[in-house]
Write a structure and sequence with these properties.
Length: about 775
């Protein structure tokens, strides 16, 4: 590996952007505005900002894409380390004609600490916003428009008196004399940003695999690159088309269209949509890579263990060898399988679970057992199973399982010995104890954070009930909102709203309550969802009470303020609080707290009742779709001729073969097959330390039936036969054949035609072991 070093100023970095590209194994642009603002602040104060590592391969086009797609120059370097900083600089200084621009927030400077608006001081020194001078007149007095100077305006004006600053001076609400005195320092700091230097290391004559290793080594010591990003880089290093496959997965699962309410970043690359986590929240890059590894684990026949459902799998030498040896078509097929699984889960989340907006998906770890089910039983994609999958997903979300329990469910979902309608009932049994009324009530009581999983699930529930905005005509300020009120859905850009407004709650609880903290004020019993427009401070409810007493009964029910059992008690508690605060009379803190806490407790009961009712509704839909009376009858479907059996690994690269997969190739009836697999499952544990009862490798597969190495079952599809050691007494030989319903034979090998039942043999194996104990010592 050869390399050279250099020093580039920020100005030179910007000049060289057309020559730079991003390798396919790199993560996307994950820095947000906060990180970019922090970089600008470091450069402003001339704080060291690290170095860049570049790669100069023979063919940049083969291994990456341009950082600037419109650049006319040829790509010369691929950025191995420093992508976030380089692209941030390109974004900051390349926004000509963009609606937003980077500004210096003068209110944050130490000189104005005591006099500036506290609300504005919460912002960063550098903020990305609309040009203050180009805002409409009605917006110029908003906190976000005051005391801001665009970087480009400062760079163009060395003196405060420069006429180009005339549009901005009226918007400065600080001491103008102090600003004028400070301005030379401000100009020096801003104009000096382009002169700051970075150390650059350029790697030459280096192959793709070595650069992937270098990338992972650079990023393994800190948190700058997540474990899923290192795993993705490893996958690209083994199969270069992995990035294209990932992008295809995003296009298929999420679609290519961008949401109308998303702000388009002119510096974004198309590939970022596949790699970033913000737009698709939890259901994004990390999940896609993890699902692909799950698919690989199954279809490569990789032995299942605790780490095989984590990103550590991509670091295992055995996996690297197996995945790297795949043909391109095989790797593409595994991505196609991953897309199928992800599409199905996304479709079930959207309908019937109403998760149109993925901001309200609590996490994806709870989905792992369902993802494993879909990998293991591809026919679960059929529409008739969708209500059942929805009922299972909602239970997994509500159960809030720890890692041990999740792995237990994943193991059940991926057990090759089980057909789907035995696997799913077992999973439902594990979840049942976590979803008793008392257990659910206890967890809802602890849902005291606006980011609690149950607060996020409240969005699902309210959408299922058809919730709308509160009546616009009763919003207590002038507003531009016109009816009909917006339905709670993705286009409404829904937001959480405190029923008892947060500012009013601070009157009751003082400094102990924080918007981002854990407190009863943030319990889901005090939260509901409304549109961003209605929740807005400027013309919406903001921190004001809604006039819920004027709402329709249907919308009150959808916002979980009333139900048939509790009537209007919650609504009356709310109205009591509203009238006490709006009367402007002295409020008794103790009495108001009591009314508030009663309202929260009662509304939480309504929410729990609605959750339980929704589960019952999903269960009924699942039963109706599958033609059964109740979910307890699912196991009956395991006997049907078209039952869902596990998928056999497509590209097995390991000698381990599940005995159940072999048995299913023998042509037995379902009953015979189940008995034989059950018999196998009884004997798969080692009889002695380091001794196996199932010998896989190449066919014929051998299966030790007895404790002593005397009687074996040999499976060589489509045939199965018994093998007796010559020392086995004729009496035992005849007994085994009789138990299996086959003709006795004195031969060492007995061909097994379809066997009526293996049950009798299963019940007598222990007795046969006892008989053989007198014939031989344990081996």
């Amino acid at each position: 590996m050869s390399s050279q070093t250099a020093e580039w100023t920020v100005a030179e970095v910007l000049k060289r952007v057309p020559e730079l590209g991003i390798p396919h194994f790199q993560r996307g642009m994950v820095w947000g505005e906060d990180s970019q603002a922090a970089l600008l602040e470091s450069l402003y104060y001339d704080t060291p900002c690290g170095s860049f590592v570049l790669w100069q391969p023979e063919d940049c086009q083969q291994h990456g894409i341009r950082l600037d797609p419109a650049a006319p120059a040829a790509m010369r370097y691929l950025v191995i380390d420093g992508q976030q900083r380089i692209r941030s600089l390109h974004s900051v200084f390349g926004r000509e004609g963009d609606a937003r621009t980077w500004c210096v927030n003068l209110a944050v400077l130490p000189e104005f600490a005591r006099k500036a608006d506290p609300q504005q001081r919460e912002l960063s020194l550098f903020v990305l916003t609309k040009d203050p001078a180009l805002r409409p007149e009605v917006e110029r007095n908003l906190p976000g428009a005051r005391n801001l100077l665009p970087l480009r305006a400062i760079e163009a004006a060395a003196f405060w008196t420069n006429p180009s600053l005339d549009p901005y001076r009226p918007l400065i609400k600080l001491d103008i004399a102090a600003v004028e005195k400070l301005y030379p320092t401000l100009y020096k700091g801003v104009s000096g940003i382009r002169t700051r230097r970075f150390f650059v290391s350029i790697q030459k004559e280096t192959g793709l695999a070595e650069m992937v290793n270098l990338y992972n080594r650079i990023n393994s010591g800190g948190k700058r690159v997540e474990v899923e990003e290192r795993a993705f880089a490893r996958l690209v290093g083994m199969q270069p088309d992995t990035f294209k496959d990932l992008k295809t997965a995003f296009d298929e699962v999420h679609g290519k269209a961008q949401k109308a309410d998303d702000i388009v970043d002119p510096m974004a690359l198309e590939r970022d949509e596949a790699l970033k986590r913000q737009k698709e929240r939890a259901f994004g890059f990390k999940l896609f890579v993890r699902v692909f590894l799950q698919v690989c684990q199954h279809h490569l026949g990789f032995p299942q263990g605790r780490t095989e459902f984590s990103f550590e799998l991509a670091e295992k030498a055995s996996f690297i060898g197996a995945f790297g040896s795949l043909e391109k078509e095989e790797a593409d097929a595994l991505w196609a399988e991953s897309r199928r699984v992800l599409r199905q889960v996304r479709n079930v989340l959207r309908d019937p679970l109403y998760v149109d907006d993925l901001r309200f998906l609590p996490d994806t770890s709870a989905l792992t057992p369902v993802l494993q089910l879909l990998i293991h039983y591809p026919r679960l994609d059929e529409d008739r199973y969708r209500p059942l999958l929805a009922a299972l997903i909602l239970r997994l979300m509500l159960a809030e399982l720890d890692t041990r329990r999740l792995l237990e469910l994943v193991a059940i979902a991926g057990d090759p010995n089980l057909v789907a309608m035995r696997s799913i009932p077992k999973m439902l049994g594990v979840l049942k104890e976590r979803l008793t009324p008392s257990a659910l009530s206890a967890r809802l009581q602890q849902a005291n954070s606006i980011q609690s999983r149950y607060v996020l699930l409240l969005y699902w529930l309210q959408r299922s009930l058809g919730a709308r905005d509160f009546l616009y005509e009763h919003v207590p300020l002038k507003h531009s909102m016109n009816g009909p009120e917006r339905v709670l859905q993705e286009s409404a850009n829904a937001e959480k709203q405190h029923l008892l407004p947060f500012i009013k709650a601070q009157v009751l609880y003082g400094g102990e309550v924080r918007r981002g903290g854990s407190h009863l004020v943030n319990n889901l019993g005090n939260l509901t969802y409304i549109s961003h427009e209605l929740n807005d401070w400027d013309g919406g409810l903001g921190e004001r009470f809604a006039r819920l007493g004027l709402e329709s009964p249907t919308n009150l029910k959808a916002h979980l303020m009333v139900d048939e059992r509790r009537g209007e008690r919650v609504l009356k508690d709310y109205e009591t609080l509203r009238k006490r605060f709006e009367a402007r009379d002295p409020v008794s803190a103790g009495g108001a707290r009591e009314a508030f806490e009663r309202m929260v407790r009662r509304r939480r009961e309504i929410i729990q009742s609605a959750i339980e009712g929704w589960l019952e509704q999903l269960d009924r839909a699942a039963c109706e779709s599958l033609g059964i009376g109740e979910l307890s009858q699912l196991a009956q479907l395991a006997h049907q001729s078209d039952r869902l059996e596990p998928a056999v690994p497509k590209y097995p690269k390991f000698p381990t073969v599940a005995g159940a997969h072999v048995v299913r190739r023998l042509g037995y009836t379902n009953v015979e097959e189940d008995h034989l697999i059950e018999l196998l499952s009884m004997r798969v544990r080692p009889l002695k330390k380091n001794k196996k009862t199932w010998y896989d490798g190449d066919p014929p597969y051998r299966w030790q039936l007895t404790k002593y190495k005397k009687i074996w079952l040999k499976l060589e599809p489509p045939h199965a036969m018994l093998r007796f050691d010559p020392s086995v007494p004729d009496e035992v030989r005849r007994q085994v054949c009789e138990l299996l319903g086959v003709a006795p034979s004195v031969e060492s090998h007995v061909l097994l035609e379809p066997v009526p039942s293996f049950l009798a043999l299963m019940q007598r194996i222990a007795d046969i072991d006892t008989q053989l104990a007198g014939e031989a010592k344990p081996s």
